[in-house]
Amino acid sequence: MKNMEKEKGHKMDFLTQFNGFIEKWMALVTPACLIMGILYADWLSHFSFLVTGLFAFMTFTGSLGSNFKDMGRIAKHPIPLVTVLILLHVVMPLIAFGVGRALFGQDMDLVTGIVLEFLVPTGIVSLAWVNIYGGHSALTISIIVIDTLLAPFMVPLMLHGLLGSVVEMAPWGMMQQLVFMIALPALAAMALNQWTMGRVSQSWKPRLAPFSKLALIGVVTINSTRIAPYMTSLTPTLIAVAGCILGLAIFGYIAALGMSRVLHLDGPDTISVMYNGGMRNISAGAVIAAQYFPSEVLFPVMIGTLFQQVIAAGAGMMIVRMPWFSRGISSSH
Fold first, then answer.
1. Tell me, what's the pLDDT at 24?
2. What is the rounded distance in angstroms from the CA atom of residue 173 to the CA atom of residue 74?
3. Among 67, 212, 242, 249, which residue is least crowded by beta carbons within 10 Å?
């Protein structure tokens, strides 16, 4: 009996270490997955049927730390939440559409990919960065969950509103896909956490977190197989698209930080708004792009995986050096 318990402890230690390793090196892991998908595209493309299920599992695991009471508490002080939602689903998509049309107006597939990249919900992995830099984790979880629940409606409607007249799309099919992939798993996890009064979050989440990271690796790697033909024959236009995505991604952080300063948010709330406003659930965008659009649409979405974690690390290192940030942290405690 003792040996069995000891073996279980060793397994948990290994899983915890693996999870910590992936979180620590996320800035390198996701680009490595992208490269693997491109190099082994012929073989890995056969596993594309797994992507939706893997993503639903990731959403379920990421939502286990939240419940409906948390949503209610955040709703009483909604300014940070509303700020992020406006930035994510109004400001950045409109800017992305304008920049995309100005630079690549003749190629609507590329414009669609650029808009989709900056329309998908906030990244679940933003919680890891918020925790690293001392942000408001409860606010971050609430933003992730609420944005996740809104995504099945916001993404197809905004895409149709901006591009529906020039790009053929299936908004209802997209909506159903997002409900299954994001909304239902999030609601199930929240209900389970509330029903067990938080016990499931304490017992299941640490065990499932490493497998959620493996699911993320699988989703990024499999989805990147679709852009292999473009990456192996890069053109000046595609390089310009990559530069455009990089510039818009950096601007997203700057805009989120600027809005936080205008609203006089404290240090932890500023960290949360910056990361939730800057990071995107690229995997969700990639699944939608792969299933509902030509493969060229996927390139602007997937190329963001090269930059996202690196920008996140750089943003954190810069903000903690700002004098007003340390004052905000101390005044909020």
1. 74
2. 31
3. 242
Domain count, the chain: 1
DSSP state of 304: G
Q: Which residue, among 277, 299, 229, has the nearest Cα to 118 in the 3D structure? A: 277
Name the token pair of 76.
């009483």
Task: Give the integer Cα–Cα distance in Å for 130 and 139.
Answer: 10
> CATH code at 120?
1.20.1530.20
**Nearest 5 degrees, angle CA 255-CA 256-CA 259?**
85
Q: Look at residues 236, 254, 228 and name the one whose alpha carbon lies nearest to residue 87.
A: 254
Q: What average pLDDT does the segment 91-116 reach?
A: 94
> Structural domain of residue 307, as residue ranges?
51-217+235-331
Return the number of other C-beta atoms located less than 10 Å from residue 160's C-beta: 15
Q: Does residue 263 lie in a domain region?
A: yes
Give me 144's structure tokens: 């992730």
Q: Is residue 204 part of a domain?
A: yes
SS3 content of the chain, % helix, strand, coil (to 5): 85, 0, 15
Query: Minimal CA–CA distance to 328: which of 282, 285, 274?
Result: 274
What is the C-alpha separation between 216 and 125, in angstroms, rounded?
A: 10
Task: Identify whether 18 is part of a domain.
Answer: no
For the chain, what is the mean pLDDT? 83
Residue 332's pLDDT band, with cuts at 50, 70 and 90, is very low
pLDDT, tens only, 118-161 = 999 898 778 778 877 778 877 887 888 788 788 888 888 888 88
pLDDT at 299 over 50: yes
Report which DSSP code applies to 179: I
Asked whether residue 226 is domain-assigned, the answer is no
